[in-house]
Design goal:
heterodimer; A: alpha/beta; 8-stranded mixed beta sheet; 32% helix; B: mainly alpha; 75% helix
Chain lengths: 357, 307
């Protein structure tokens, strides 16, 4: 069924909990979303909002213990990954779904030559011989724009710069032409000019290969020029889900509005203090289940927000928001888009991203 | 680059050994008594003759110079106690015994320790982990001079399986108890070091990458984790050798093995100066060379290291 309507990945009511001494941390608490073939989905949220855990759950890489996927379905081509035996999941990892991680400095094995790390994956999944794998490794490094790839393929990771290492990670991730690439904050550890290069690279490779991409970031500037849809996560829940342009122009959730407002805009706000959402992300181990997790920090919060968990309101065909006042906030945003992140061009290159200070 | 590093380190070895020898020589001389003191009180004329024969009537700096000349020419002279043998003869005769026991003990410790440590790390906080770590805590806490007699009591005097004190050469059943006694503490240390190292590595980002590639857990551990996880064990090997030598002294005494350690104890009791100096010089070179080997090995294991 999935092949017909073009849905590659469908996550249904995913819950991943961590047992800690401090109690159960509901890192991901009932997430659902769909990803169509060839699309790019952005997942945005503060640190600890559960965005990485969501994606590690997809390929079952949650360290267990203490983590545990409590319930839900991860349908990949209509097949539930969570119910597959381990060796079937391993055939998907790295081959059909691959990941790029945040810190390229530590994500490559420091004791192993780049060539071996690249060869390993195609020898495993594509049955390459050593020679084939080696040639493929060189080709992949050329694809991701590493100059003089043939002479550098036998180097060790520490002989590469941060940006080059992230290119190596991308080369590794794309070696087997995966159907889904999950990029978990791929540019957070890089400086701004390199950030733009890496994002451009992912964008181009995606266009060439038709891979679907999930881009996880806490930087709204990063997703702006990259994604078709955006999911905003907070405290393990989806707070808002919308097409990228719509989300930037007409957010339907107070939290999203706060995020957009806290992106610096050097052109118009020079000299004024940058907005920040008051308070800290909640301690998800001790969150009362019957209130809105954002209530304490919300400018719009009323009595009901502390008494009842908000509904997931459908604002239009593709736009959802988790808020008691979703309709009102949505209407507010219609004319008042300039208060939000209107200075971020949803189509443009995300050079002015919030991480750039 | 590496060659120059090795050469420099080897050159440093010479003065260090000389310092060790000087200190040892000074200690022997500063301690009261001398090698003929255990005999009856000697008539002054005979004592004078003995002192003249061994050069003890000369000024101390002449004697010291003599010692240094011997050391540098690698000829320590004859033992004072075993007069028919040179120190070099004794070293040649005893070293194979100590080397066999010591090497077997360390290899056994390495094998058992790394396996135990890795398994404990992979099954962290399981019963297996607690069991392995409990045993290794015991191994560290029980000194070899306690463990030795216990093993003898059980395996020799109660079960009659193994000889309590005998040396039948290498390899032989007579080695089993000495090797076990000597290796217990290293096994324990290495198990703990491996566990700690592996736990750290298994949580690292590049292991997550390896898993995300779709490798099996076995491939992840053997190809990716073990190398980094065992680095602490490699660096422990240098100091371990020094400890191993002191351990040998005790263990050889317990099992009456004709090794370097037994002779070292006897040499000290007999105030056998040439033999003491010979063994000290030899072991200090051994320790220094081993530390150098460990540093070189480090460079091969971790490509980030530059000399």
């Amino acid at each position: 069924m999935s092949s017909q309507n073009g849905t590659l990945l469908s996550i249904k009511d995913l819950r991943t909990y961590f047992e800690t001494e401090d109690g159960t941390v509901r890192a991901v608490d009932g997430i659902s979303f769909d990803l169509k073939r060839g699309e790019t989905l952005g997942i945005v949220g503060e640190s600890g909002s559960g965005k990485s855990v969501t994606n590690l759950s997809v390929i079952r890489l949650i360290p267990s213990p203490p983590g545990k996927i409590v319930s839900g379905e991860v349908l990949f081509h209509g097949q539930d990954i969570l119910s597959l035996p381990d060796d079937e999941v391993r055939k998907i990892r790295g081959k059909r779904i691959s990941m790029i991680f945040q810190d390229p400095m530590t994500s490559l094995n420091p004791f192993m030559r780049i060539s071996r790390q690249l060869m390993e994956i195609t020898q495993l999944h594509l049955g390459h011989t050593r020679e084939q794998a080696y040639e493929h490794a060189v080709k992949m490094l050329e694809t991701v724009g590493i100059p003089d790839a043939r002479s550098r393929v036998d180097a060790y990771p520490h002989e590469f710069s941060g940006g080059m290492r992230q290119r190596v990670m991308i080369a590794m991730a794309l070696s087997c032409e995966p159907e889904l690439l999950i990029a978990d904050e791929p540019t957070t550890a890089l400086d701004v000019t390199i950030q733009a290069q890496i994002l451009e690279l992912i964008k181009n490779l995606k266009r060439e290969t038709g891979t679907s991409v999930i881009l996880i970031t806490h930087d709204l500037g990063v997703v702006a020029g990259m994604t078709d849809d955006i999911i905003v996560m907070y405290a393990g829940k989806v707070f808002e889900q919308a097409p990228t342009r719509e989300l930037f122009e007409r957010p339907g959730n107070p939290y999203t509005k706060g995020l957009l407002k806290s992106v610096p805009d050097p052109a118009h706000e020079e000299g004024t203090e940058l907005y920040q959402i008051p308070g800290l992300p909640p301690d998800v181990a001790h969150l009362p289940p019957e209130q809105c997790p954002f209530a304490e920090r919300c400018y719009r919060a009323e009595e009901i927000c502390k008494k009842e968990f908000p509904p997931f309101v459908q604002l239009n065909e593709e736009h959802f928001s988790l808020c008691h006042f979703a309709e009102e906030v949505y209407d507010e945003s219609r004319g008042g888009a300039q208060t939000a992140g209107s200075h971020i061009d949803p189509n443009g290159l995300p050079l002015q991203g919030g991480g750039g200070r | 680059m590496k060659f120059r590093f090795i050469l420099r380190r080897l050159l440093v070895t010479v003065p260090m050994v000389l310092v060790v020898i000087t200190l040892t020589w000074a200690l022997i001389r500063l301690a009261p008594g001398n090698f003929y003191a255990s005999e009856r009180k000697l008539p002054p004329a005979i004592e004078k003759n003995i002192r003249a024969k061994y050069g003890l009537d000369r000024p101390w700096y002449v004697q010291y110079g003599h010692v240094m000349r011997n050391i540098l020419s690698l000829d320590f002279g004859n033992s004072l106690k075993y007069e028919n043998e040179t120190v070099n003869d004794i070293l040649r005769r005893t070293l194979p015994v100590s080397a066999a026991v010591g090497t077997c003990a360390y290899l056994l410790a390495l094998l058992v320790g790394t396996v135990l440590g890795t398994v404990a790390a992979l099954k962290q906080n399981s019963k297996l982990d607690y069991g392995a770590m409990g045993v290794s805590m015991l191994g560290i806490s029980v000194p070899n001079f306690v463990l030795g007699p216990i093993l003898v009591l059980v395996f020799s005097l109660s079960l009659y399986w193994l000889p309590p004190a005998r040396w039948d050469g290498f390899p032989s059943w007579s080695m089993v108890l000495p090797v076990l006694t000597l290796s217990a503490i290293y096994m324990a240390y290495i198990a703990r070091l491996t566990r700690a190292g592996m736990l750290e590595v298994l949580r690292s980002d590049y292991i997550r990458t390896a898993r995300a590639k779709g490798l099996t857990e076995r491939q992840v551990v053997l190809r990716h984790a073990l190398r980094g996880g065992l680095l602490p064990v490699v660096s422990f090997t240098g100091p371990a050798l020094a400890l191993l030598i002191t351990g040998t002294v005790v263990v050889e005494r317990i099992y009456a093995l004709p090794g370097l350690g037994t002779y070292f104890i006897n040499a000290n009791l007999n105030r056998d100066e040439p033999l003491i100096l010979g063994i000290v010089a030899f072991t200090s070179v051994l320790v220094l060379v081993f530390n150098l080997l460990v540093d070189i090995a480090y460079g091969f294991i971790d490509p980030r290291i530059r000399y």
